[in-house]
Amino acid sequence: MKKVVFYPLLFLISINLALGLNITKDIPTFTNSGKDITVKISVIDANIGAKISVIELLPINFEISDWVVIGATEAQAQILTKNNNVYNWSFTPSEASPEITYTVPISPASNGEFTFVSKWSSATESGNLEKKLNVISILCGNSICDEGEDETICSADCQPVEEVSESVFEKKKKRNPYVQVLIIAVILGLAGFVIYKIREIKKTKGVKLEIKIPESLKPEKPKNVIKQDPNPEKTEVEGFGSELPSFHDETASLELPSLEDYQKDIKEEMPDIKPAETPKEKHSKLNYKKKVKDVGNLFSRAFKKEK
Question: Which residues 6+ apart lie within 8 Å of 85 measured at CB?
Fold first, then answer.
C-alpha cells in the first residue's frame, strides 16, 4: 500500500520540477563594433508572490546603459544592484512570465567572441544559461564598406548613395504609349508577313510547270497538189525516213509527219531525252521546222524543172 502511494507522489514531484521556474535569453549572434545590442531575459512559470533573483554576468569592459523589468511588484529603483560587470535583479513577480530587457553599447575597439552568463534562483530552484556574441570590428579607411558601416560612421569607406533624379522618372512617364504600341504592331506585322511567305513557299513544293507549244512553232501543211516529173528522181530528206514522190502528169500528194510523231521518233532514237521542256526538245522543234523547209525547197525545185 505504501508503494502504491509513493510512486504517484514521486511522479508529481518530477513533473513539478520539470515544469518549474526557468528562463530564456534572446541575444544577437553577430554584431558590429560601435553598435548597441538589446538582450531580453524571459522568466517562465514564475511563482507569483515568491521572490526571485536574476544575475547577469557581462564580459569585461561591457556595461548596461539602460534596462527595464516588466511584471515586478517593486519599483524599478529597488530592483537592481550592480558590482562591476555583475548585475543582479531581485524582485517579486506580479505575473507568471516577467521579463528583463537591457541595452549594452559595444565599444568600437571590441572584436571577437564574448560570453553572457545568466544565473537565476528562487527559494526552491536555481539554474544558469550562457549565450555568445560575435563582434566584428569595423576598420575605417580600408576601402571596404563593412556591415554596420555607413557614410556617417566612415565616409572614407562608404560613399553616399546617389539618388536618382526625379527628372529621369518624369521623362519615362512622359513617353507616348501610342509610340510603343505602334512599334509593337510593326514588329508583329513583319513577323506575320515572314510567316505568310514561308507558308506560300511551302505550298509551291511539288508543283509541276506545263508549257504548251505555240501554234506558231507547228509547221504549216504544205500544198500537196503538184505535177509529177516525167523523169522521176528519188530524193530522201534525212530524218523523215521516206522518199519524195516522182512528178508525172498526174497529181500526187505528200503527207509530212506531225511534230508529235517526229518527236516520238527522236525519243525512240535518243531515249535519254525527257518529256519535260528541255534544250534538246527545243532543238528538235527547230530541227523539225528546218526539215519541213527543206522539203518545201525540194518541191519548189522539182516544180520549176517540170515547167
Answer: 57, 58, 59, 60, 61, 62, 63
The torsion region of residue 191 among left (phi > 0), alpha (psi -120 to 50) and beta comes to alpha
Rg of the chain, C-alpha, whole Å: 59
Question: What's the per-residue H, E or C state across 103-118?
Answer: EEECCCCCCEEEEEEE
- Residues of the chain predicted below pLDDT 70: 1-19, 147-148, 161-175, 202-263, 265-307
| Predicted pLDDT at 169 | 52
One DSSP character per residue, the chain reads: -HHHHHHHHHHHHHHHHHTS-EEEEE--SEEETT-EEEEEEEEES--TTS-EEEEEEPPTT----EEEEESBSS-GGGTEEEETTEEEEEE-BSSSS-EEEEEEEPPTT--EEEEEEEEEE-SS-EEEEEEEEEEE---TTSS---TT--TTT-TTTSPPPPPPPHHHHHHHHTS-HHHHHHHHHHHHHHHHHHHHHHHHHHHTTTPPP--PPPGGGSPPPPP--EEEPSS----B-TTT--BPPPPEEEEE---PPPHHHHHHHHHHH-TT--SS--HHHHHHHHHHHHHHHHHHHHHHHHHHHH-
Separation of alpha carbons 62 and 112, rounded Å: 13
- Burial label, 23 (beta-carbon count in 10 A; 0-12, 13-18, 19+): buried
By DSSP bridging, strand 99-105 and strand 112-121 are unpaired
102 CB contacts (<8 Å, ≥6 apart)?
38, 39, 56, 64, 66, 67, 68, 87
Q: For the CA atoms of 140, 145, 147, 152, what is the dihedral angle to 10 degrees? A: 70
